[in-house]
Amino acid sequence: MSKTTQCKNCEKHFDESFDYCPYCGQESADKLTFGVLFSNTIGNYFAVDARFFKSFIPLMVKPGILARRFVDGKRLSYLHPAQFYLFISVVFFFIFSFTVRKADNDLTQKFQKEFRGEIAIDSLDFKKDSIGIEIAKKALKENAVLTNIAKEDLNAIDSVLTAEQKNPKSTFSFSQKKLDSLIRSGAPLEEKLAHMGLNEGDSLIKRKFFTQILKLYEQKGGGILKTLYDTIPITMFLMLPLFAFLLKIFYWKKGTFAHHMVFSFYFFTFIFTSLCFLILGNMIFEIPVWLKLLFFFSFIIYLMIALRNFYKSSRISTFFKGILVTYVYVMIIVPIAFTGIILVSIFLY
User: Fold this and answer.
1) pTM beyond 0.90, yes or no
2) Exposure pattern of 188-224 as b/e (b: 16+ CB <10 Å)?
């Protein structure tokens, strides 16, 4: 009598000599590895079927359960975590693009007002002030609500920019009228950069920075916010493995890195899905700030419950590990990533 094995997906028994389950088609020796996690993801990118709806409800109302089921072998019953994440992220950034366009137009108008001369920059001593810093300070203050910058952070940024103004080496020294004249006459790039203060022996990085600032000046800031947001999707995809790496550190013996990636994919999918509802709701009516804060706080609650359900850890252990993971990610990884986004945006603008 031949030996039988049980399918991890449909839980039916079949002959162990079969490579695939005759009932559902899942590979009998299906081991979850990092390679398997990403296999066929691109090919099945938009192959969203009934599994989407079967996966959606557990994702939203049962934190960590969907990831746990997938890791335990029920993989054909639910949408692949990477596929789920990519699909939702496309939907999110599509919806988000409408908000970006409006915000970009508003910010562009602010820049254009500043460049038209609301700040008296002609004949200023640029060792004490600079057009770029002054415009940045005023634009940030007037768009604090739009950019969700806290008052404390805004004060800190203002302090840094003010300190930069007192440093002659960190400011530009040029006459706006002369630069405008050079731009209108179609002067060579080298002449315009030289007028802004770029020396012949300066580094390529400094040259690139001056070139981008000149471009920002010539275009009156148009499209800068859109360029900033265009880099976010790639950055978010790169930040997801960092979140999984944090989980690996705190749950070292609780599975392979691929298991932590599964959890991360589903968690970030939940965040993007929730943000889709938030943006759509805000388009219909203005959501109060306190409700938005409560909404974001719910992500931490969701993470706590998901960690407990996925890793089967105690409540106390889950609480402290969840707090530490959140703190490290939000206070260290996110600021570094945000700084990277700004720098990349400046050089891609």
Assistant:
1) no
2) eeeebbbbbebeeeeeeeebebbbbbbebbeebbbbb
How far is the C-alpha of 222 from the C-alpha of 292, rounded, in Å? 29
Torsions phi, psi for 13 (to 5 deg): -95, 145
Contact 113, 69 (CB under 8 A): no
Q: How would DSSP label each residue in 47-85? A: ---HHHHHHHHHHHHSTTHHHHHHHTT--SSS--HHHHH
Which element (helix H / strand E) includes 228? Answer: helix 224-230
In whole angstroms, give the CA distance from residue 344 to residue 227.
Answer: 9
Backbone angles phi, psi at 15, to 5 degrees: -60, 135
Q: What is the DSSP letter of 20?
A: B
| Residue type, position 115, single letter | F
Distance CA 63, CA 56 (A): 11
Q: Which residues of 256-288 are buried (b: 16+ CB within 10 A; e: fewer)?
A: eebbbbbbbbbbbbbbbbbbbebeeeeeeeeee
Beta bridge partners of 15: 4
Question: What is the residue-level pLDDT of the chain in tens, covering all 349 positions?
Answer: 567 888 888 888 888 888 888 888 787 776 776 666 665 555 555 555 667 888 999 999 999 999 999 999 888 888 889 889 988 998 988 888 777 666 656 655 665 555 554 333 343 344 444 445 555 555 555 555 444 555 555 565 555 555 544 444 444 556 667 777 777 777 888 888 887 777 777 777 777 777 777 777 776 655 566 666 667 777 777 889 999 999 999 998 888 999 999 999 999 999 999 999 998 888 888 888 888 889 889 999 999 999 999 999 899 999 999 999 999 998 988 888 878 777 766 666 6
Cβ-based neighbours of 217, under 8 Å, separated by 6 or more:
115, 131, 179
- Angle, CA of 13, 19 and 20, to the nearest 5°: 60
143 neighbors 106 (Cβ within 8 angstroms): yes
